[in-house]
Write a structure and sequence with these properties.
By secondary structure, this protein is α/β, with parallel strands linked by helices. The chain has a single domain, classed as TIM Barrel. The protein is about 45% helix and about 15% strand. The chain has an 8-stranded parallel β-barrel with strand order 1-2-3-4-5-6-7-8, surrounded by 9 helices. The longest helix has 17 residues, at about 195-210. The chain is globular, with a radius of gyration of 19 Å.
Length: about 260
């Protein structure tokens, strides 16, 4: 069968915004259905900060594949082995946090691309082909083309090195981890600060120069989200399961408690 399309990657290649839903606490096959019902394009399945095992993340990925919602897994910074396992078991993309140098980016790109682009190992019939792939060379070339590899820019050093990182073949996107970047700058939480705006401009310029996608994480207020999308952010983490539940739950209980009782 043909490879399942990476919806988020297709939107990005068309210059469109791809909206992600962060998954920290939700479980089960209903997760991608909820994401689709709320007009998201991809899942940000977070095994760095979320309480998800590799097995749980893989089950969400497998459920997402036929839904058209792209499953993307964020792993811990040094957990490239967990990332390749996620890719072998349904993930269509990987996000690696805390990438400060081009050397780190090259290791990441090599780990997640099959030869001749990298050194990823063939793990058997892939889920992206419904476990019925064509011959190995054709399958591996197709998977290389449909796998999104994103590194996170979360320190001033990473911002300074953004041009070199963006120049690495096999890296598709540079996502600014805005919360961690502000902490590293000594201005935690000040996501609209002039220094953060300058960082977005610098990384946006690096992405534009090398044909890569600018990503945005940790920005949820209207003013700053509009600002950074206006600067070119296209791989956008729109919100997360706990954030959505808390916002909707708080609004609902506020309404119910305000109802007259007599």
């Amino acid at each position: 069968m043909p490879i399942l399309r990476n919806t988020a990657l297709a939107r990005l290649r068309a210059g469109e915004v791809a909206l992600g839903m962060g998954i920290h606490h939700l479980r089960g096959a209903g997760v991608p259905m909820l994401a689709a019902a709320t007009c998201h394009d991809w899942l940000f399945i977070d095994t760095e900060h979320g309480a998800l095992s590799v097995s749980e993340a893989s089950q969400i990925c497998l459920a997402a594949l036929p839904s058209g919602i792209t499953p993307i897994v964020r792993v811990c910074a040094g957990a490239l082995d967990e990332a390749t396992r996620a890719l072998d078991n349904g993930a269509q993309g990987i996000v690696v946090p805390h990438v400060d140098t081009a050397e780190q980016a090259r290791r990441i790109a090599a780990a997640f691309r099959f030869p001749p682009l990298g050194h990823r190992s063939w793990g058997g019939p892939p889920a992206s082909f419904g476990f019925r792939p064509p011959e190995a060379a054709e399958a591996q070339a197709a998977i290389n083309a449909e796998t999104l590899v994103c590194v996170m820019i979360e320190t001033p050093d990473a911002v300074a090195n953004a041009g070199a990182i963006a120049a690495v073949a096999g890296i598709d996107a540079l996502m600014i981890g805005t919360s961690d970047l502000t902490a590293e700058m000594g201005i935690p939480g000040r996501i609209g600060d002039d220094r953060v705006q300058a960082a977005y401009r610098a990384v946006a310029d690096a992405c534009s120069a090398h044909g890569k996608v600018l990503g945005m994480g940790g920005v949820y207020d209207h003013e700053n989200a509009a600002r950074y999308v206006g600067m070119g952010a296209r791989l956008v983490l729109a919100g997360s399961d706990h954030g959505y539940l808390m916002a909707a739950g708080t609004a609902r209980t506020g309404f119910m408690r305000a109802l007259p009782t007599s």
